[in-house]
Amino acid sequence: MTHPLFLRMSVADNVFVLPQGADAGATLGAVTIRDRIPPLHKIAATDIPSGKQVIKYGHPIGSACRDIRAGDWVHDHNVRPLPQEQWPQLPEWRGPYPTDRGAPRDKFMGYRRRGAIRPGVRNDIWVIPSVGCIRGEIRYILANYRKPYWIDSVRLIDHQSDCGGGENSASAVDMLLGLAFNPNAAGILFVGLGCENLQVSDLYNRALAGKCNVTFAIMQKSGGDKIPMLLDELAADSPRVREEFPASGLCVGVIGSDGPSHASANPLLGHFSNGLASQGGTILAAGGPSLLGALPAIAPKITTEGAFESFSHLARLSGSLRAPSADDLKNGITTGEEKAVAGISIIGETQITGALDSGEPARSVAGTQITAESGCEAANCTAFAGSGAQVILFATQSGTPFGSVVPTVKISSHTELAEKHPRWIDFDAGTLLEGEPWDAAASRLEKLVLSVACGKRVAHEEKDIGDI
């Protein structure tokens, strides 16, 4: 008699996930598996009568459309989405979400910033153009610039704004200023051509008011000859040594994925989020159907009525639940509700303290804040950096070489990916599908994040990739 590996995402669940699948007749304690189960699919942990809710991650993901016996395969042949009037909807605010915040136990070595609420984990100088047509010339100048030893990187924030600006120019400016305030930037050099609508002197004045180490250049006046000297001045006014800070000084963006991630990387990020928030740290997560679809599960975690109103506005803009794709169904996701709660598993049981507009700085409050960006993963990473994240944790099921302007830890949802792309992947969460305990994997991830915060370079940094 075989005893296959199984995962129970919450003590409230009435289903198990079988990462490696199982044959009929295998047993899980007193439960005998009645069907051949594909990898990553679910079985009933108890009897689930017709009409009763199916619970995973501690939340309803659908209802039984026929009687389901303990040990039965649970999927779209016997589960239906919840009735429309039950999901999704935003309940009334119920009052502050209780938390058990302890004293920070972890430390990291970062760079103190004047006037900033958080330290930097990198000592970079970021060059931000006001218009896209000068990017090539700036790249040429930077390629010939020799940075001082105490500066980690001199990085071009490579965007493609035109000289006139568009209907989204206000939010673009907010994002550029948000990036300027990121604590990983020891210095900011705004560079303009001179004839564009967005003048770098305006960006400079707004950044200077934020107490940034900032200067600017106009290429039609200097031809770019002053840029090396200005970079030297910014570097000279930057710290040269790291200091010790508590884990409460960390702001980390988290991005989940599809496929096997629902049983590995996503809930692992939730374990990490719980640990960081319990020490006073801040989590950033992106708004969108994958996160905002699980409104009844999220609403009780919101801490204040003001945050609830901000979140309600963001939720109304997010659209509706996404039905599972063919790939989702293959990987054991049965309903849109399950896809949604798999998405919110990245924030664990952390409290939600607010919703952020484009480039709005994250407040120094323990728990999760939701960013307004809901596009592709690269756009979400930019939103995190613009709101002050010093590190990003990026789960992936198929792999990507992308790296943001802040350290972006790529987490594979299965071991095959980590082995196939070792120059892309920094952490393998596929070990969870092979039996590694959650606490052990979360401890490994926490240690990696702290080492990255102390200066360890991740895969994309080794190749000097840093994009928005």
Notable characteristics:
468 residues, alpha/beta, seven-stranded parallel sheet, four-stranded parallel sheet
Number of strands: 21
How are strands sequenced across the largest beta sheet?
A: 17-18-16-15-19-20-21
The low-confidence parts are none
Task: Give the helix tally.
Answer: 15
Radius of gyration computed on alpha carbons: 24 Å
Cα(first) to Cα(last) distance is 53 Å
- Helix fraction, binned, reads 25-40%
Q: Round the mean pLDDT to the nearest integer and report it.
A: 88
Hey, roughly how much beta strand do the residues contain?
15-25%
Q: What composes the largest sheet?
A: 7 strands, parallel
**How would you describe the shape?**
elongated
The class by helix and strand makeup works out as alpha/beta
Architecture overview:
By secondary structure, the protein is of the alpha/beta class. The protein is 28% helix and 19% strand. The chain contains 15 helices and 21 strands. Strand 2 (27-28) and strand 3 form a beta hairpin. The longest helix is centred in the C-terminal third of the chain and has 16 residues, at 438-453. The radius of gyration is 24 Å and the shape is elongated. The termini are far apart. The model has no long low-confidence stretch (mean pLDDT 88).
